[in-house]
Amino acid sequence: MLYPNERTRFTLEIFKYLEKELSSKYNTQFLYVYNFEKVINPKYAKRVPIHRWYTLKESYSPYLIEELIKTKVVKMPKKGILDPFVGAGSSLLGSQWIGIPSIGVDILPFFCLVSKVKTSWKMYDIKIIKEIYEKVKNLDLKEEPNITPLTLSTFSKVYDIKTLKELLVIKEFILNLDRDLELYRDLLKIILASILEPTSIAKKDGKGLKIVREKPLERPKDAFLRKLEEVINDLNIVYYFLRLKYANVQVLNDDARQLSKVPRGEADLVVFSPPYLNTFDYTEVYKLELWFLDFVKNRNEWYELRRRTFRSHNLAKWTRTEYWSHKVLDKVEEYLKKQELWCKDIPVIVRDYFDDMYLTLKALYDVTHDECWVAIVVGNSAYGGIIIPVDLLIMRSAVDVGFRPMKLLIVRELGTSSQQLRLLKGDIRKLLRESVIILRKS
User: Fold this and answer.
1) Would you give the distance in Å from CA 272 to the centre of its chain?
2) Residues paired with 71 in a beta bridge
């Protein structure tokens, strides 16, 4: 058990050691760049046309790509952009809008669908969407759906019988669309996914769903029509006012630690945000979407998908590995073992997280162009009253892969649990930050 002054001393010691190693050996710069907050902070991303059709709680803005290039933090790519954790498609949209081809990868098939739908915006005909709008408007929600009932118990907890039935009627309508409207079927699935939360009595809160109200915010048909109106408005904006560029996009359901499906040498800029070391499991947070859209059909499929995710959470039993090691990471692991932690697996999760980051960086080094730049949006984490230098450790592991650590752009302070806040005293709190790591392939 560490006392408060020992925790502070330990945290400062490991940060200073890594900063000195990176700056003295590799000339890494550490810069505070507050102008990046609007393109990093998720609350601003929710306002961006097209991107707002479905956002993740952790989404950065599509305009991050333009900002990185405009401020000359990275060089303008000549070949293409790669995002190995595509999520809600921020990087792909941002690349597309400035005319740069891109490739997105994600292990969750639902996120792949979200990204495909958004980056297909130029293919949608507003007239057809308006026709679909009228059909939904006239949809009889009193009919009994012919769809197999959902087996996940969460649905009966967060929806009343009437609401769940109405959602299933809308789903059945989408699945029964004519074959020539397949492009729009995927769009409607994402619209349906976007209303699952406001039509429930729960919301995404931290590591999962939390029941927060007595009745839904909206009825399913009203919410679906509202979202269709948003889509129509956004398409009008991008077609007639923003006049955005359009470039080719590939979305691949693949593992960032392998990138086996990614063509070699086609990306000379990589921009991504990996899962943070915060024990959030995306198969849990987005389980309504995964189950309702049939990406998983039973618990075995759900757990199997979970076991393939990044080792950043505690909802799977991980085996400790050691693909990459550093004296600071060793110290962090040993100190965590002595702490009173809410989860005894935290030391293993921390070790495995950096192993998975190391494997991801190795895969990126193998598939990217020789003149590649890399920008990684990441946040530091706190456990047992110490702050883990996630950004600095990722930079240091990148060195061992072959990347050159150019800059660390420190953007903003992050929040954490009230328990951790009580343990983090004084200026040490500032080290719990969100940053952008800049690397160069050399």
Assistant:
1) 9
2) none
The token duo for 201 is: 């009595």
Place of tokens 């029964």: 176
The residue ranges of DSSP E strands in 196-317, in sequence order, are 202-205, 208-211, 249-253, 269-272
| Beta carbons within 10 angstroms of residue 424's beta carbon | 21
295, two tokens? 């990406």
- Scanning the structure block, which residue is given the tokens 């408060």? 4
Intervals of the chain under pLDDT 70: 1-4, 415-427
Residue 229 neighbours by CB under 8 Å, 6+ apart:
133
Q: Which of 25, 84, 87 is nearest to 54 (CA)?
A: 87
Phi then psi for 128, rounded to 5 degrees? -65, -40
Task: Give Cα separations from 337 to 175, 329, 349, 351, 385 (angstroms).
Answer: 51, 12, 12, 12, 13
Write the burial class of residue 419 (CB in 10 Å: 0-12 exposed, 13-18 middle, 19+ buried): exposed
The per-residue DSSP string of 363-414 comes to HHHHHS-TT-EEEEEEE-EEETTEEE-HHHHHHHHHHHHTEEEEEEEEEEE-
> Tokens 């499906």 correspond to what residue?
261
According to DSSP, the residues that pair with 31 across neighbouring strands are 409
pLDDT tens digit sequence for 327-379: 999 999 999 999 889 999 999 999 999 999 999 999 999 999 999 999 999 99
Matching residue, tokens 């948003």: 230
Handedness of CA 178, 183, 187, 190 (dihedral sign): positive
Q: Which of 43, 72, 73 is nearest to 60 (CA)?
A: 43
Residue 426: exposure state from Cβ atoms within 10 A (0-12, 13-18, ≥19):
exposed
Cα–Cα distances in Å, from 436 out to 130, 256, 312, 359?
Answer: 41, 19, 19, 19
pLDDT tens for 257-307 read 999 999 999 999 999 999 999 999 999 999 999 999 999 999 999 999 999
* Residue 1: per-residue pLDDT: 42
* Pair type for strands 249-253 and 102-106: parallel
In angstroms, the CA 85 to CA 252 distance is: 10
> Phi and psi of 208, rounded to 5°?
180, -155
Q: What is the 3-state secondary structure (H, E, C) of 142-171?
A: CCCCCCCCCCCCHHHHHCCHHHHHHHHHHH
* pTM of the model as a whole: 0.95
Q: Which residues partner with 381 through β-bridges?
A: 388
